[in-house]
Recover the amino acids of this structure.
């Protein structure tokens, strides 16, 4: 049986787990996994069979690097994270070398998903789920007006760039904080309105910020799997349950959010919906059109999300899947000897290749 060649460009460290989940697939399909990253010792590369360094490129030059890599290594499936939108803009180049890219081909939708302000406007129009009270601002006076409006409604307030990943740029406005205590304590996301306003006022404008109500209930990541046409095949709500504990649980209203999201937007393959409760109501944080950072935990539900996306992209039949019981999970560190040249991971320099 011919091996399926799969390529990950620059990913998070957890891609190590995605690679092993694909490798240990239930159908016994042999795979060879390729990966690139600027840091040849990055943990994600330890899950690959062939690993290499990425050059520092952007735009079409980076896309051409990926195309050349796929052509040279006869890649069947490309699972991108870095520069996803640029890659999606040039899918015809990958089609020409016979590589299937696991990315949303609806460019308008992908661009909207990657801009939280634009996506909130779309969700508001559809009414498929509740969104927090928010404003999008690009100068200090707009920031002040947004803060005052939200505070007048009784909300605690936070803000975050509209285009970012994870917790980058996230801040909570707290006017009662003690800077001296913080100086001797843990780094926190807290900032007073006055400090934030002063910093923002130093610039005539800045990249869009979303100023919104702070949600203080349980936060859920809903890991979703769809076929290449966006039909939902599986969804697993996951939340923190104290310390390192993670709980995958059946929450009917969240499973319904996943169903309505898939029906409305038709996002293909793996995607993740982040929701947070406020006053008993789940409200949208964001949707990521890719595998989430905690997806390997959700796979403990018995659903192999990374492999099933690959199987679907290859034209295999993937039936709708559901997890039977709630699953409480955790993790421990495991020491790992790094593999280099001469061991089972082959490293090669790809700069200028």
């Amino acid at each position: 049986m011919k091996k399926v060649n799969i390529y990950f460009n620059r990913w998070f460290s957890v891609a190590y787990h995605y690679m092993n989940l694909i490798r240990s697939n239930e159908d016994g399909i042999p795979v060879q996994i390729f990966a690139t990253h600027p840091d040849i010792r990055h943990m994600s590369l330890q899950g690959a069979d062939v690993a290499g360094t990425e050059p520092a490129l952007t735009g079409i030059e980076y896309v051409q690097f990926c195309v050349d890599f796929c052509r040279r290594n006869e890649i069947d499936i490309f699972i991108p994270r870095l520069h996803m939108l640029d890659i999606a803009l040039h899918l015809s180049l990958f089609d020409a070398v016979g590589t299937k890219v696991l990315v949303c081909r609806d460019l308008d939708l992908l661009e909207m998903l990657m801009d939280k302000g634009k996506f909130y406007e779309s969700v508001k129009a559809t009414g498929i789920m509740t969104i927090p009270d928010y404003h999008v601002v690009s100068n200090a006076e707009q920031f002040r007006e947004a803060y005052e409006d939200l505070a007048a409604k009784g909300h605690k307030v936070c803000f975050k760039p509209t285009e970012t990943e994870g917790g980058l740029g996230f801040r909570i406005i707290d006017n009662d904080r003690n800077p001296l205590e913080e100086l001797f304590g843990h780094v926190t996301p807290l900032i007073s309105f006055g400090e934030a306003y002063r910093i923002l006022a130093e610039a005539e404008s800045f990249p869009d910020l979303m100023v919104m109500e702070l949600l203080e209930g349980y936060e859920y990541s809903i890991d979703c799997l769809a076929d290449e046409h966006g039909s939902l095949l599986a969804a697993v709500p996951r939340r923190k349950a104290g310390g390192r504990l993670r709980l995958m649980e059946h929450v009917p209203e969240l499973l319904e959010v996943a169903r309505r999201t898939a029906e409305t937007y038709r996002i293909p393959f793996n995607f993740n919906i982040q929701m947070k409760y406020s006053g008993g109501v789940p409200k949208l944080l964001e949707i990521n059109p890719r595998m989430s950072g905690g997806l390997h935990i959700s796979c403990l539900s018995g659903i192999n999300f990374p492999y099933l996306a690959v199987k679907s992209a290859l034209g295999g039949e993937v039936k709708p899947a559901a997890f039977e019981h709630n699953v409480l999970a955790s993790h421990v560190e495991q020491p790992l000897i790094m593999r280099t040249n001469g061991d089972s991971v082959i490293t090669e320099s790809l700069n200028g290749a």
About this structure: The chain is about 30% helix and 25% strand. The two ends are 30 Å apart (CA to CA). Residues 49 and 262 are 34 Å apart (CA to CA). The longest strand covers residues 269-278.
